[in-house]
Amino acid sequence: MGVNLVYKIVKSHLVEGTLEPGSEIAIRIDQTLTQDATGTMAYLQFEAMGVPRVRTELSVSYVDHNTLQDGFENADDHRYLQTVAAKHGIYYSKAGNGICHQVHLERFGRPGKTLLGSDSHTPTGGGIGMLAIGAGGLDVAVAMGGGPFYLACPKVVKVNLTNKLRPWVSAKDVILSILRMLTTKGNVGAVIEYGGEGVKTLSVPERATITNMGAELGVTTSVFPSDDITRSFLKAQKRESDWVALSADPDAGYDRVVDLDLGSIEPLVAKPHSPDNVATVKEVAGVRVDQVMVGSCTNSSYRDLMLVASMLKGKKISPEVSFGVAPGSRQVLEMIAGNGALSDIIASGARILESTCGFCIGAGQAPKTDAVSIRTSNRNFEGRSGTRSAKVYLASPETAVAAALTGVITDPRDLGLSYPGITIPTEFRIDDSMILPPSKDPGSITVYRGPNIGDPPKGEPLPQTIQGVVAIKVGDKITTDHIMPAGPRLKYRSNIPKYAEFVFEGVDPGFSKKALENKKAGVHNIIVAGASYGQGSSREHAAICPMFLGVKAVIAKSFERIHAANLVNFGILPLTFASDADYDSVNNGDRIEIADVRKALETGKTLLLAGKTSGKTIALKYSFSARQRDILLAGGMLNYPKARTK
Length: 646
Ligand code: MIC
Ligand code: SF4
Hints:
Blueprint: H1 5-13, E1 14-16, E2 24-27, E3 31-35, H2 36-49, E4 58-62, H3 72-88, E5 91-93, H4 100-107, E6 114-117, E7 131-134, H5 137-144, E8 149-152, E9 155-162, H6 171-182, E10 190-195, H7 204-212, H8 214-217, E11 221-223, H9 228-236, E12 256-261, E13 268-270, E14 278-280, H10 281-284, E15 291-294, H11 302-312, E16 322-325, H12 330-338, H13 341-347, E17 351-352, E18 372-375, E19 391-395, H14 397-406, E20 435-436, E21 466-473, H15 480-483, H16 496-499, H17 511-520, E22 524-528, H18 541-548, E23 551-556, H19 561-569, E24 573-577, E25 591-594, H20 597-603, E26 607-611, E27 617-621, H21 626-634
Parallel strand pairs: 3-4, 3-6, 4-5, 6-7, 9-10, 9-12, 10-11, 15-16, 15-18, 16-17, 18-19, 21-22, 22-23, 23-24
Antiparallel strand pairs: 1-2, 2-8, 5-20, 13-14, 13-19, 21-25, 24-27, 25-26, 26-27
Helix pairs in contact: 2-3, 2-5, 6-7, 11-13, 11-14
Bound molecules: alpha-methylisocitric acid and iron/sulfur cluster.
Iron/sulfur cluster binds near residues 65, 99, 121, 360 and 361.
């Protein structure tokens, strides 16, 4: 049997392990990316490793998440990032140059290469044929130091695309229809490979929209083949020499094949509060809209913004709507400014926002109380917009503009406009002056550390017996936004003791104080959760801050990949119930004991949770590689130098 595309890239980068789905493998990482919100920790950890210069082919540090600078913290962090990059061989993309995934696709992504990014939407690079994976900052720091990346060897799911999209239906509708099919749960450990005749009908930015939101499925990553369309895109970015052809063998095998007829897809939305809560636009048409936001790493390419401009040309948006547009990169902004499209957007009544994440992460543009907000971004978790009562719908740029024009959710096909077919330019405007190359004289660089920067805390070796209390019990689909809120709290990303004050802020505002008191009294804290715990972002702060508060274990029905890895990296045990029904026998505030933890991990024995309050004993499962076990016993990767570099 032939080899699929995913295994071709994995094989050519394999450093340890064998290609058996589920078993731990290690791959060599060619490129890394970080962004400011996860980057400060990643570089502090990298510095702690004592490696003078990155050992990757390319490492880039982007500033895109928190550019509000309401106080000194962000600006100080940016300066730290700039100087640490210059010193250690890392390219630095300045604030204002664009969103990491968009800029990386435009200027650095290379088919067939591996990319590890400290951001869950790193799989955007799959649109250009990269094996691009999101991970915690510590894993990225290790990769920068030359260490491999460990992951479970994936199952490969082929999505076989046939036919082509109809007018007014676009890439966002494709990924929403896949989310409707596969949902956000149960896809951990899989990689999606796109194939079939439909692939050649999609441009690189459209492919990138699709792989970007694979993150919401919970898959490890998603990949498109690299073909003539990829070549033309790279040529237009003056990087044709970076192109290689890549595809699966014709007789390649897959663990599962899903067929998707592009011609059958309708305009779709994801209703509040989950990206898989998908409905057709027709089903929700007529809902009054208060805010429309176009942008984010999902839908802010030149193609998307030109589409928006064409739809808005000569029209005014509804007086009831606040409409914001954030171009994904400086390149996109300059190009639409140069060809007049930006004027059409401005004239319609839009508010032009900086080329950053901004509204997507709740850094500004919080909607009004109870608002309906239509956004082209990728996550509509409750409260993420900055307004807990807001109802966020995710949609394509086509559907977003239709709502901005009419003031209600509207199927764009009902506007009576002719569909503006947007072609990808044969030449993009290239100006890399906001990407600063590393210093040629690193010895002359002094790394700047503002008062907001603190050392990453180290964990303590795993205790023999966990004796403590269920400090919080939560339900299914708890996201990292629930655990570690972003928005106005983002500026504390480099200051763990401060940021830890906000753990579970929106779920139980008293959690942090209570947990810290327990820790001081020598009582271990336990988190109990339902299915898909840790969905969403790669932010390792959702593990570091609980570690700082004395959390020793999370017991859940199931975990999402990146978060489970982050818990291990910071010495917190991710455990699952042997039977999901046991979730009901553990309650918030229960005193519990898990005895002989170290011994059990060393021998592979089942762990038993003895409920001191409930009187019940239940079995707990775990599945750790020998490497993960040693990291956990040591109290996290920072206590386990062997795991760091090779
Ligand atoms: C997100 O979309 O949630 C973020 C903010 O980009 C995160 C990273 C972070 O929390 O810094 C992600 O997706 O990994
Ligand atoms: Fe930024 Fe939003 Fe993309 Fe995260 S999902 S990288 S916050 S634009």
